[in-house]
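# step 3/5: fold
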Amino acid sequence: IGIEGNMVYLTGDPSGDTNGISLLNLETNKINAVNPIECHSMLGSYYSLDATAPYAVEMECDGVKDSIPLKPRSRDAQILNALRANFPNKQISLGNWTDKNDKALLQISDSSNIAEVFLLDLNDGQLKYIASASNVPKNLLHKNEPRAFTTEDDDEIYGYLTKPKGEIKKLVAYVHGGPHGPRDYDGYDPFEQYLASKGVAVLKVNFRGSGGYGKQYEELGYQEWGGLIMDDVATATKIIQDELNISRDNTCVAGASFGGYAALTMSYKYPDLFECVVGMM
């Protein structure tokens, strides 16, 4: 994702423990991970005007979005740090600086606002609202809440819970496709938002085998399509059922592509958890 002098900036962790960021030293041919171990999933990079290497990266750290500075003393890293304090747990895209390096576009996005664009003007120290990607009023959208789950074999997995604003009537475990490569994010999903608007809580689980958490995490799901992966979704579902006091009679599992396979598999592997299954595509 960048090169500066003898240093090459790479996505990935040579240990396979995270999907983080590493530095390759072309003089020594050594690669070292530079992200904190709790920051497992890289979401994007930040570049200053005319720079060939990022000054920061955006990652999920224990399931929550954060910015990891690579050049903390730089002007742009300090600006990003101030913005992060005002937009906690939201995805921040900052770039497209003007030739004078005094204005940039800022995009803020997550499940509860889709995307909003601002102009950052350093001349007057203001953020100027430009537009939103959604015609849906923000008060009608629902935020994905990050969740962590301990599996039956004492591993840790992550996911999201979207809760209705009023009474919670039902629960849907919404399984993503893949299973290897894709993963769930805190992003806008019309199906999920529709369910939440009808009083249905939506659970998304980044089971072992999902992409975005490092090579080892993804490989744990190899040859486990009907085994470990299903167990991870079931474990998370049980925990959320207890948290929300939702019974089996008010719980469904749904998904598309591999998620559809997972839903159908749940119908006979965990019939005590789900009243209905929905397999799409």
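# step 4/5: annotate
The longest strand covers residues 39-46.
# step 5/5: archive (pending)
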